[in-house]
Amino acid sequence: MTSDSHAAQASHDGGHGDHSEHNDHSGHHVCSFQLFAGVFFALLILTIITVAVSRFDFGGFNMIIAMAIAAVKASLVMSIFMHMRWDTAINNIAFLSSILFLSLLFLFILADYSTRGDTDPILATPSMQMKPAEYYQHDWSGH
Predict the structure, then answer these.
(1) Can you tell me the distance from the alpha carbon of 109 to that of 103, in angstroms, rounded to the nearest whole number?
(2) Which of 103, 102, 141, 104 minimizes the C-alpha distance to 123?
(3) What residues contact 127, with CB distance under 8 A and at least 6 apart?
(4) Mean pLDDT throughout 17-24?
(5) One-letter-per-residue 3-state SS of 29-41
(6) What global pTM score does this model have?
(7) What's 55's DSSP letter?
(8) What is the maximum span of the chain, computed from C-alpha positions, in angstroms?
(9) What whole-number distance in Å separates Cα of residue 40 and Cα of residue 43?
């Protein structure tokens, strides 16, 4: 190389003569096609498993199985396609804490919803599982 080509090369890569040093500090991660294809096929297989499992009745475990498979699929998408596997620790902590607070929000909503009784929408009083005739003839004034 001539001295002119060295100067052009140095100005092109920001003054660093070594391309690998420049690429190490760029903050980008490049995944191979094989990794993306493997994750894609894993997601397809997990989707087929989800559909197959939904055809059977496991009682109360149907929702648990579906959520477990969905959690595995979501973690594959987040870690590989969103590149969180190679992201900084502070970004991972921020993301995981937001998921934690969202799950706490849903937990409190579901706890509140599960402890409520049936209410009459007109009178806003608890229904006593009475027959309709008994319900409307009942004295709700408390006397």
Answers:
(1) 10
(2) 141
(3) 117, 118, 119, 120, 135
(4) 44
(5) CCCCHHHHHHHHH
(6) 0.52
(7) T
(8) 105
(9) 5
